Write the structure tokens for this entry.
Amino acid sequence: MTAVMHVLPYLVAAYVFLVGAYGLATSRNLIHAVGCLAVCQSATYVLLLAVGYRDGGTAPVFSDIRPGSRPVVDPVVQALTLTDIVVGATVTALLLALTVQIAKRHGTVDPDELRELRG
Amino acid sequence: MTDAVVVVALLAVAGCATAAVANRDPARQALILAVLGTSLAVLFTVLQAPDVGLSQLAVGSALTPLLIMLSVRKVRRRSAHGKDSRQ
Amino acid sequence: MNGWILAATVVLAVGLGTTLWGVATGPLGRRVVAQNLSTALVCPGLLLLSQGYSRTAYVDLALLLALLGPVGTLVFVRLLADELGDNPPQAWGPTWVAAGVGTVVVAVLCAVTGPGRAMVKLLVIGALLVGGNLLASRALSGGFPGVSRD
Amino acid sequence: MNPRTRLWLVVLGGGGLAALLVAACLRLPVFGGPWHPYGDRAVRAALARHTANTVASVNFDQRAFDTMGEMTILFGAVLGCVVLLRQARDEHRDPPAPCEVAAPVRRYALIVLPVALVTGLYVIAHGQLSPGGGFQGGVVAATALHLMYLGADYAALERIRPIEAYEIGDALSASAYLVLGFAGVLAGSAFLANTLLPYGTFNMLSSGGTVPLLNAAIGMEVACAVVVLLARFLDQAVEIEEGSGE
Amino acid sequence: MHRLLPLLPAVPLLGAGLLVAGGRHVPRPVAEAFACVAAATTAALAIVLLPHSSPPLVEWVGGWFPKGGESVGIVLLGDGVSLGLVALVSLITLAALAYSWHYFDEPPRGHAGTFPALILLFQGGMCGFAIAGDLFNLFVFFELMSVVAYALTGYRIDEARAVQGGVTFGVVNSLGAYFMLMGIALLYARTGELAMAKIGHGLDAAAAHHGPDALALAGFVMVLTGLLVKAAAVPFQFWLPDAHAVAPTPVCMLLSGVMVELGAYGVWRVYGTVFSGPGGVPAADASRALVVLGVLTGAVGSVMCWYQRHIKRLLAFSTIAHTGLFLVGIGVLKAEADDGTALYILGHAGVKAALFACAGILLDRYGSVDELYLHGRARRLRGVGVMFAVGALALAGLPPFGTGLGKAVSEEAVGGPLTVLYVAASALTGAAVLRVAARVFLGLGPRPEEGDGEESDEDETSGADEEPETQKRLNHVPLPMVAVPAVLLAAALVVGAVPGFADMVGHAVEAAGTWGVFSSVHWTATGVLLDLLSTLLAVGLAMVAVTRPGLLGAPGWALPLRRLQSGHVGDYVAWLLVGTALLGALALPGVLG
């Protein structure tokens, strides 16, 4: 169990990333593709936080515990993940906005039916 | 024992991710993404990152589904437009 | 090893497992119900985790979920009104079970915490959670005549 | 390219990538290991500056420059959505008919709206102490306003949401964050330096020097930005129609 | 002076914030003048800091100077290369703003400041990217410039192609950014640091006993994938023509002139600071990976460039070809090649921006950027024609343009068969642009019949029926639109022709790099001859193409290559995955051995 536990979170992150990329490549609907991109991004959250975890640690927030009383996990990765989540939300919003316009101008959101920009 | 809850959260995230990719209809995918957001928040809590969990809840449980559903609605309404005047 | 975390693990495993299965398969109506239940079951799980890690600061997560979860469901109800309208999903059994779990967890935690600000916060969470979920369930099952279809 | 060829490419590239990632994962330090040099330094630095929430200290003090970039990304994306979802030449606005919402939903929305707003403000204000902060609270506060749409209808939401004011608020609070950064340079210290204000008492609302100020600026920016963003999407989904009138 | 480094991104960002806050209450010229002032201030600041950049300026934002060698802050690097790039970015931004002055169509309803504000945000992102010394900070600014660029690309929402190009650009680049973030997380796990120099040391320390391992390789591959997507290396390049062909002209000037090159700069910076030590990826393997991708990029870019009829798309492919050359220059890991590449990037930025500016004039004047449709129609635009032809020759490497000097210096440094690539790629792209100039501005050659190329319509993007970007189709060309390309071409000439400038650039590059040698950078006889050779080849090819279109028409073997550019997001993502695997495979031997 422990040997598996040592790498399981990393492997889950890698799996989620690959699954998202697969969905993105085979998507038949741009809104679905944007969702897959969000799945890909959630892999980065998982990986970052897994990297910063410490066994028996608790959150590095000292509003309700005394500093130094308990080991804490890495606060830096948490800050990075926070930034990452904001980035993810904004990218999702922007791509959805573009998709809405595609639906208007092309009458479809299926990438197979977009017949422009070839060659 | 604390590992068990980490495993549960990880498996839930992996399962949601798979389901979110496998369901090709954007409305259904939006529902799964909402559950994925909740699972991620649980994972972040057990990884002792409540700050991140809060922002994932804030974004994942209402904002992202709302954005996706509004886009779906606009796209559907557009394609329904002209065929029948279903509003 | 800690009984609270064990309880949280069980609640989360059952809750996330069933709702994942519910949300990933079946007709659209059932999926929305499952999404609603995911909030209802994860929120008590988060409360138990907060107790298990003995961090009162983690309660904020449950508060946010109890607030925003039903809002998310109402978004789906509103924007999927056309699809759901023909065949409104009825799922009172699971809904009441989830509400019961929420009530029990909040009650137990209140008993452990004792009177004070923390207990008020727990009660607010409990009220928001149970109220929000029952309301969302009812809105889903089409229990309100004249729900907007704009 | 036909779907089958594409699938082969995905399998080929994804297989290689998977092998690489798995090999890398096996070489990573074990999950839950004790070695976090940067993290430990960050905790010490946060405590030295009387900031109880280390994550807030990293976000708004130690790595405040990242947060500046993050805030600008949000600002730029919202500006981008405003541009992309503008009313095109061949579209017109068609105000939706007022609709009736069931009384329990309306009551729920009206009760929860103030609760959610207060929660949002609470999460922002306590960002430097307990989990939370400008970003999380800002999103909650902005989402709360949209309960008006769920509980009543779009017209009601538009009444409490003068969109121009939010756009200006968004820009001003983004500028405020940058101005706080410039203040450091003008005061002879470094950009975004947290040396201008006293650090206060540990675990008090006013502790942490400039952290609460930057946190508040982000909170306001995020709340305004999300309102503007959702307004654009709602406009598209509810109000803007194609064709120049029917 | 180092205190001023963070202001380089902060000034344009603040400018953008104020512009959005106050833009709706001021007339449009005021808003645009304000944006120009903000861009110019940044340029001036960078130029003031440049003389102080040796030894490099180092700033820890927030005053978190390291104690005992360790800091919790973010480090910014102001060496000759990064400050030079900031100056270049700011000057091109200024040119783009001047070009769009008052004639560019704005969205209605009182958003006067929006377009200049987006341009300023873009500039801020690129400046921050250039001076970043911290890997995560690099990612943040990478995302900032990407996000703003997506919005700018889809700016003309009335155009079907613009929004499609925007989505393609957005999906592929965001995925690339997430690759990069995964790589950063892996490197952080290994070294526990985020500052690039510290990560490099951490990798070396970790690999002291057994050499680099799979983790270092994965970090290298993932981070470089993100940067190479931005740099549009084959097979990550597909998004670029789709995005550059449809973006508004001033945005194209920025995208092609500097943003893509920043990707190549990122590769140089990250490899040099993070992976060049014993714990990173061995030089031979990194070199193999970059040179192979660079050669592929140069070849694919120039061949595709030749077969385009959409003028902006043709220019976009020529950017791909030139990035390939830059990647080769960076990839051979030689000090002189770095010097040459730096000069090449400077010259190319001016020339390419000028060419896009001229294409924009055609679009606004005739409502088309299709080479065949425009045949002979632009005879009256003599000045623009001359500039277009001069730009084409400069692209082919005509001495004494900066492109020529950069190409000559790089050619000499890379040596051997790679020289052929430089000559061929620059000649082919120069010839393609020259062919357009001859047909469009002089009306040379047989007039193509309507519906020419009908049989391959399915696999071709024509440039006809584009909406002009101005409020209405122009009857005369306004002064700024002509002055900007003229100034840009003159600047490209200055880079190569002013004695001493090249030496200055060379010193700046070598002081910033890890080579520790100072070689003199100047014109040599071989270089001039090779430049003249490629220019003559370009002229010859263009003449043949114009007079005998059948002779150099699209042969069958090019068709599969063109079909790869399918406009399908899924295909591009699949290629991205393949490219990552390829990059890993190319760098693998160093880790196994």
